[in-house]
Amino acid sequence: MNTELENAIDVRPASQGMKAVDLLSNPYVTNALRPNILGRDVISKKIELKKTNPTITDDEVKEVLRKEYLERLSIKDALEETKKTLDTDLKKVVAHTLSVLENTAESRAKVQADLEANKEKILLGLTYINRFL
Question: Residue 29, Cα to own-chain centre: how many angstroms?
């Protein structure tokens, strides 16, 4: 890739925002990775959890199931690995995008705005790519 295009935009603000995204509490990520939890799964898990917490609610059981689901996806480790190389990866995304759009002030501003506006989407996309490579 073209080093000039990689450095055409300062990706650090977007990168810092992405690195601050928490897998378990970010509303966009939580919604995007929401598992399809069946009623029977809630009942089975609730029976198991009532042994140690007799007053557990269905919502609390669903949250436990959601966290278990995320652990099974191995997305947490992939997310942390993605965050380690995020600056470099974002520079590559910027360089590719600007090579398609043309390297103008207007294009750079649009790409910068898109990075900021789509932090979670970009982070999840890069995480999925890294997970499967």
Answer: 6
> Position of tokens 């499967």?
132
Distances (CA, A) of 74 to 18, 84, 112, 128, 131: 19, 16, 30, 10, 8
pLDDT by residue (tens digit) across 39-88? 999 999 999 999 999 999 999 999 999 888 887 877 888 899 999 999 99
Q: At residue 126, does pLDDT exceed 90?
A: yes
Distance CA 34, CA 44 (A): 19
Residue 25 amino acid letter: S
Of 130, 90, 126, the closest CA to residue 111 belongs to 90
Q: Rounded distance, CA 125 to CA 116, Å?
A: 15
Asked whether 90 and 14 are in contact (CB, 8 A), the reply is yes
Percent of the chain with pLDDT over 90: 65
| The two structure tokens encoding residue 82 | 């993605």
